[in-house]
Amino acid sequence: MFAPVAAAGCGTKTGAGKTDGTSLWCWPGGLSTKVVADAKQKFRNDTTLIYSEYSGNFRQKLTSALSGRAPAITGIKGEDIASFLPRADQFVDLTTLGADRLTSAYLPSKWQEATAVDGRQVGIPIDIGPTAMFYRTDVFDRAGLPTDPADVDAATATWAEFLAFGKRLRARLPGTYVLANTLTMFTIEVCQSGKRFVDQFNHFVGDDEHVKNAWDVAVQASTGGLCAGIDNDDKRWGPALAAGSIAVSFGAAWHAQDIESDAPSASGAWRVAAGPAGGANIGGSFLAIPASTTDQATAFEIIEWILSPENEARAYTDARLFPSTPSSYSMPALTEPEPYYGGQRTIDVFSASARKTRRAYEAPSDAAIQDVYLNELRNVEYHGKKPEQAWSDAVKAARTVAAENGVN
What we know:
The protein is α/β, with parallel strands linked by helices. The chain contains 17 helices and eight strands. The protein has two domains: 15-129 and 283-330, Periplasmic binding protein-like II (D-Maltodextrin-Binding Protein, domain 2, 3-Layer(aba) Sandwich); 131-280 and 356-404, D-Maltodextrin-Binding Protein, domain 2, CATH 3.40.190.10. The protein has helices at residues 33-42, 58-66, 81-84, 108-113, 137-142, 149-155, 159-172, 183-192, 209-223, 237-243, 255-262, 296-306, 309-319, 332-335, 347-356, 366-383, 387-404, and strands spanning 22-26, 49-53, 73-76, 123-125, 131-136, 248-252, 270-273, 286-288.
């Protein structure tokens, strides 16, 4: 079910190169609505920018529209970009509109995510999701553990060190868990390797060492009693964060908004450190132009303006969209101390994580394959399944999903 906030249609050309409307589709929270409102004013002499947000399955909505009445500009979620790259001909190759001159402004790893194998540039990055470790200083303090981000970094620089750190916390505070679950931990460690579940030659690599290592770390955390067994969408998640019964939450920069909204009473208690989790990316989306768009030049000008470094910095303030443009990181919108995090400048942590991120090739079937491993980790953590059997079942099921999607 989709819930549009405004009607939308394709940009159609009229006299003097103007359009009777340039439609822009996204999802709630996908863009800064303040920046979009300013774009409407900036381009009012060229076109009427009609902005629509759709909840629900946005990929499905866009896929249907591409064979019918597509918008002039559309968002593409980071987890969906791989499924659209094989259909790059349904979008404008943005290099034909001058995108090449923008390349240096964006993080290479994120720019390349929207580049098809034939070199077509399908999208321009809206944001990225550099990862880190969010933690409760008050809980760490009660456990007699370091609380300053630099000291926490030093104590948890590797996954093995983090596990040992977590065991000390659990021993000293038996009623407190380190993590809600192991799902994000596993995802981050896989991403840190620079590989995922299918390689660029379309070969299944879901049983390779980088996946098994991430699996083993996650299993050690769950079988070692570090996790509360609360899934990411469990209604107990927010109250547990607010109460401090979960001390750590791994996530991308945008995860800060989840914590702040679910645990407002814990303002000042949270901090961010790289810990073992830096150098990966989760999420981050794109703006693209469907091939059916009539006034492609105007559409590209709008994208270029909305996603300029200055406006990406504003989007971080407005909507917690972490910029894909490194020059934004030194702008006041990102460098101000953050009261929720005790006055910490979290940009220092996330910008370092962003610069360390390597691009991991993502096949169209990658998300479906990953879900198999996450489900088996749930079976280990929530239902007591033996890890060896769960790993064997995960690899077998993942191979099946891969084969169904044409992976060798």
